[in-house]
Specification:
This protein is an alpha/beta fold. It has one domain: Ribonuclease H-like superfamily/Ribonuclease H (Nucleotidyltransferase, domain 5). The protein contains four helices and five strands, in the order E-E-E-H-E-H-H-E-H. It has a five-stranded mixed β-sheet with strand order 3-2-1-4-5. The longest helix has 20 residues.
Length: 136
């Protein structure tokens, strides 16, 4: 079983976004910082979740079909949209994410408060600050 935590950070003035991925498996952590193309935080949350699950799927290959993922997000729109398979303004993002999830045996999505998502949150903020420094 894999525990996956994601978070996105967006700077509204610049439109820059970045994400953090924290993957835990067999007591081993993998951390990743990712530059995102999204210019608003909701889209960025969907984008980082899709990237994280895509990378895990690609890493596991055929074994993904036998894998359970506990996906933790502090984004209520991502969590609720996955439960409903619907989001009024983000349906394309929901569909992409559901498509990637279908490669796994089971993906359990859990909304967590920000304080329980500090690892991914910190990675996202570090990645965003690095992007802002690159632009200056």
């Amino acid at each position: 079983m894999f525990s996956l935590y994601t978070d996105a950070a967006t700077q509204p003035e610049s439109g820059l976004s970045a994400g953090g991925i924290l993957l835990i498996h067999d007591h081993q952590q993998t951390q990743e910082k990712v530059a995102l193309t999204a210019t608003d935080n909701h889209t960025a949350e969907f984008e980082i979740a899709t990237i994280a699950l895509t990378r895990l799927r690609d890493q596991l290959g055929a074994a993904a079909g036998e894998t359970t993922v506990l996906f933790h997000t502090d984004s209520q729109i991502v969590s609720q949209s996955l439960a409903k398979h619907y989001a009024k303004h983000y349906q394309a993002e929901v569909d992409r994410l559901l498509s990637v999830q279908s490669a796994f045996q089971l993906v359990l999505t859990e909304w967590v408060p920000e304080k329980q998502n500090q690892g991914a949150h910190t990675l996202a903020n570090q990645a965003l600050h690095a992007r802002e420094a690159d632009v200056k």
